[in-house]
Amino acid sequence: MLNTYKLFLALFSLLLLSGCANPSWTATGKIVPPVYNVCPLEGKWTVTQNLAPEGYAGEANLPAEGGTAQFTRELAVLGGYVWNKPSYKIKKVNSTDYLMTRYIALNNYLVSMNKEVDVVTLYANLNFLGEFMKIDDATVIAFVQNKVLLLRKISDQADSPLPVADTNIRDTNNESNIGTSGIFIGVKIPSDNGYTYKTLWVASDDKKLRPVLTRNNIFFPRNSGFWELQVRSALNNGTAELFAHDTAVKDSATQRVSGETSLKQAQKRNTAIAIDYIGNDYIAIENITAGISILQVLPVDKLSSQIGIKVSDLLGAKGLTAYRSAREQALRSLRDEGVTLLNEVADEENFGLTRKNGHWYLQGRINYQSNGMAETREFPINIIPPANLILYDTLYLSWQNIKDRVPNALDAFTSPNKDIAIIETKNKLYIYGISDEKLDSLPMGEIEIREGETVIMAEWATGSYVDIWERAFLVNDAQVAENAP
């Protein structure tokens, strides 16, 4: 009897315990991401070879042959740099395809042809630092700041403690560099065939202006590196193509290669594309086909899609409500005017961005006909653009203060360091220092622009990234601007 009681008690306990657990079949569709206890580059490495060809410029503070690199979850140390709280992302790639995308021709003995390898991307404070191609557990090829280094592991563990107190090591997360700022400025230029584009680089150290650099097309930073964006027009058939590619990828005008994305428009009359805004991952354009002009927001990685992103996908439910309310108000006004609406159905893709008084604003568009002519009506979408669309859009000065100093100002951009400002007018871009939250009495310099030219991109770098961005720009054919300060 006692044994029966014990058996019953044991079975009852098992039932209670099983009731506390989730059976595997109840977790259908639930994906639990893997947890990594160590970083994918964990350990201490030595630089055994510089794989870049002779004359290929690189960052002097990175380790030379015989130097070391160390990685943990808490720190990444490369020569003269140390990054706190780095993040690592891993992707699997075909080794041959990946190396084909680089300007550097590497010896075949390093990797087996068409072998699948891991590429680890290193970030700090959301800034892209470099990529590390793992040949095996003890061999890595590092693509960092215009250098290509062969690393061999010498220890599975980094030094403890890491030499962060070394005065020769610069902590790029914590160094203030308050007086060092730089900005990529994308400019849209009216032309006989639509628009052309150029990029300006403006940088200063303690309000001392560096030479202004420029190059054709739009050169812009992304988490994966630096990209180029351009619009190509085919005059023989009236089509236009929006084209973007990673500048670390070989570019061929006749052959598509990995790393390129493009938007090919249907072959219709009067097809044109005008870029209104460029960010890290999204662009806003005006797409004109057969006389009908619509707005579109497109992801840089999927320009091959001719359909723009929907309001609900980018702005969520709150944004969709704001969009529909503003659009309906604009529609009522147009109905009162007795015009012919081309599409009264809520078009969630006909929206974009516009600039006003130092900020980007979301706007929608309605297409209609008046006296047989195609017309458009824009309406504001009263919601702040999300951070994944516009990462930085802060104006540290009051608009009134800007107008007091530059009465004909049309737009303004201020550095995250609060040390310089770019003021746009009809014919000039003025570069001002900022002191006590006011523009200085006189500009540090000015850049001539033609009437009708507009700024469509403003990407800021501060601290040590100013040098990194400037070097990348120079490597990609930037020149000192004519008639620039």
From TrEMBL:
<keyword id="KW-0732">Signal</keyword>
<protein>
    <recommendedName>
        <fullName>Lipoprotein</fullName>
    </recommendedName>
</protein>
<feature type="signal peptide">
    <location>
        <begin position="1"/>
        <end position="26"/>
    </location>
</feature>
